[in-house]
Specification:
Elements: E1 2-6, H1 7-18, E2 33-39, E3 42-48, E4 52-59, E5 61-64, E6 66-71, H2 72-81, E7 86-92, E8 95-100, E9 103-107, E10 126-129, H3 130-140, E11 155-161, E12 164-170, E13 174-181, E14 191-195, H4 196-206, E15 211-216, E16 220-225, E17 228-233, E18 252-257, H5 258-268, E19 278-283, E20 286-293, E21 297-304, E22 306-308, E23 312-316, H6 318-327, E24 332-337, E25 344-348, E26 351-358
Antiparallel strand pairs: 1-5, 1-7, 2-3, 2-6, 3-4, 4-17, 7-8, 8-9, 10-15, 11-12, 11-14, 12-13, 13-26, 15-16, 16-17, 18-22, 18-24, 19-20, 19-23, 20-21, 24-25, 25-26
């Protein structure tokens, strides 16, 4: 095996596939590597930890076909460290040379025979606009849990809703729901639970593509963007009944410009130490934000706003509140509240396809 490739192209490909290679202790050693397969001028690079697989193809100048498994992080670091221009990779017996100009590295490969065989993606597919799907991922994945002790909550549920696709995620403190209207991806009553980790990686991929092709199997899902393919195992289990969490009505509505609110939250939360909540005092035509930390100090800021309902003070985790406001599209958001202890809902004005619900924090 021998080929040449521009440094930036090869470094980016190794880094992308390397995000799926495992760094866990106790895993098969070969899973810490990337499988490189060259045929003619096409190089296919694969990384997997058996739960998540990322595979992509790039054009190279091929001299000799073949395959090898290289240590993922080491090979990416080596290529990234080299100078501008083409990098030559050559397999000679039990060694792999990676060279560029007057720089040369020799690496011992991993056993290619130990590398797992990958399953074939499902035949049936549906294609979505990458920009629309990527925006939905940006809005929803942030609400998925990262606590592996509750695996169900680390996933994003995709389900058929009306004439489109609905994506839902919750970590039990907040909930995000996004509808993609007019995209028939799943059959009626069908739902799948896709790991949030996989969709976080997919977010990076869709930013550079025009379309996303999705293939759903019985136990896995595959997403294709250009020449890159991401495959992930689906999570088994029953997703919580999220509908019962969404209040049927909200008598209080606060409408405020999105960017000024985000900036105000970021400022006052400087004083919100040790998970101190930020209080929102709503009434009339102003919104007052306050953070108080005992023995440290306090911060307040007022914003112009439009409020309808009974005067109310409600407190939120500032990071969760900022995440919801940031996720909304549009120049203004509306915060719907019932009282100081019931779930609140954030929506972008004029953008009813997205809902972000968060639980308030009890304060004295």
């Amino acid at each position: 095996m021998k080929f040449r490739c521009e440094r930036e192209v090869l470094a980016d490909a190794l880094t992308t596939a390397g995000r799926a290679a495992t760094g866990r202790t106790g895993a098969l050693p070969v899973l810490s590597g990337l499988k490189l397969e060259q045929k003619g001028n096409k190089l296919t690079i694969t990384g997997t930890d058996l739960d998540l697989t990322i595979q992509l193809s790039i054009e190279v100048g091929g001299d000799r076909d073949g395959g090898v498994v290289l240590p993922a992080r080491l090979s990416a670091d080596i290529v990234r460290s080299l100078g501008q221009g083409k990098v030559e990779v050559a397999v000679e017996g039990e060694e792999v040379s990676i060279s560029n100009g007057r720089s040369n590295f020799v690496v011992r490969p991993l056993n290619i025979d130990d590398y797992p065989k990958l399953s074939t993606p499902a035949a049936n597919s549906v294609t979505l606009p990458a920009a629309q799907f990527g925006d939905a991922l940006r809005q929803v994945v942030r609400a998925a849990s990262t606590d592996e002790a509750r695996p169900i909550l680390t996933g994003v549920m995709m389900t058929a809703e009306g004439d489109g696709l609905r994506m839902v995620a919750t970590d039990s403190y907040r909930l995000a729901v996004r509808d993609i209207v007019g995209q028939q991806v799943l059959s009626a009553d069908q739902r799948v639970l896709v790991p949030g980790r996989a969709l976080t990686e997919l977010q990076r991929l869709v930013s550079g593509g025009d379309d996303v092709t999705m293939r759903l199997g019985d136990r896995d899902a595959t997403f294709e963007v250009g020449s890159t393919r991401l495959t992930t195992r689906l999570i088994e289990g029953e997703f919580p009944n999220y509908r019962q969490l969404i209040p049927a009505s909200h008598p209080n509505t606060l409408t405020v410009e999105r960017e000024p609110l985000l900036e105000a939250i970021r400022r006052v939360k400087i004083l919100a130490k040790d998970a101190t909540p930020v209080r929102l005092q709503m009434g009339g035509d102003t919104l007052r934000l306050t953070a108080i930390t005992q023995d440290v100090g306090n911060a307040t800021e007022e914003l112009d706003a439009e409020f309808k309902g009974s005067e109310l003070t409600v407190a939120f985790n500032p990071d969760y509140l900022a995440a919801g406001v940031e996720a909304c599209n549009g120049t203004s958001i509306t915060l719907f509240t019932l009282d100081a202890l019931k779930p609140a809902v954030v929506r972008g004005v004029g953008h009813d396809d997205y809902l972000y619900l968060l639980m308030p924090v009890r304060v004295p």
